[in-house]
Amino acid sequence: AGMKFFLQYVGCFIAFFSAGLLIISTWTDCWMVNADDSLEVSTKCRGLWWECVTNVFDGIQTCDEYDSIYAEHSVKLVLTRAMMITADILSGLGFLFLVLGLDCVKFLPHEPLIKLRICLASGVMLLLAGLPGITGSVWYAVDVYVERSSLLLHNVFLGIQYKFGWSCWLGMAGSLGCFLSGSLLTCCMYLFRETSSGRLHSAYSLRKGYSSAMTVVTNAHLPSYQTATSKMYAVDTRV
Predict the structure, then answer these.
(1) Dihedral of CA 163/51/157/139: which sign?
(2) Whether the Cβ atoms of residue 100 and residue 93 lie closer than 8 Å to each other
(3) How far apart are CA 189 and CA 121, in angstroms?
(4) Where are the domains of the chain?
(5) Tens-digit pLDDT profile for residues 44-70
């Protein structure tokens, strides 16, 4: 039981930070950053929703939102948006389900098997959240790297060259955290399913046997004429 509690709390801790990293990654503006900022007087970052320029001297930042969500955007941008939003929703739901499944939370306190299944369901959600998260962030990073390498290979200089930034790294870290917490909850918690089921069955059998024994003992202590009178009274009452 102690190991089960420990795994629940570790999985909850990792799931909380993983979901937070994915959400921060999705809604921050530094998926791409200018690669050579030594000659620049400003740092340029591009996110999934807007582009920001920060002056290196006074720290003033100005951001420009992209025209519209329905505007003509690159396939890389649209698919990364969709995958990261999906990862955010699944990781958030997985964390909420995990909180409900914790033994310290007073939700279905007399249904240990149901709470264990809730933990398993949250683990599956976290695993599913890690898949689009890692796919979107790694694909975006690889695409930025390939684009920059191809320009350098062909000696093409377009003014500003980008590399992937810290928002992309946060997406990768959050996705890996979802995989880790989901694995803990699905693989390790599955080992406790048979143990919990056996304990519940044993407790039910013991309670049933104890109830039957008490009934026999009670009837044994009653005189026969009292037992017969009680039965007749019960029949008259029903009539």
Answers:
(1) positive
(2) no
(3) 11
(4) 1-202
(5) 888 888 888 888 777 788 888 776 655
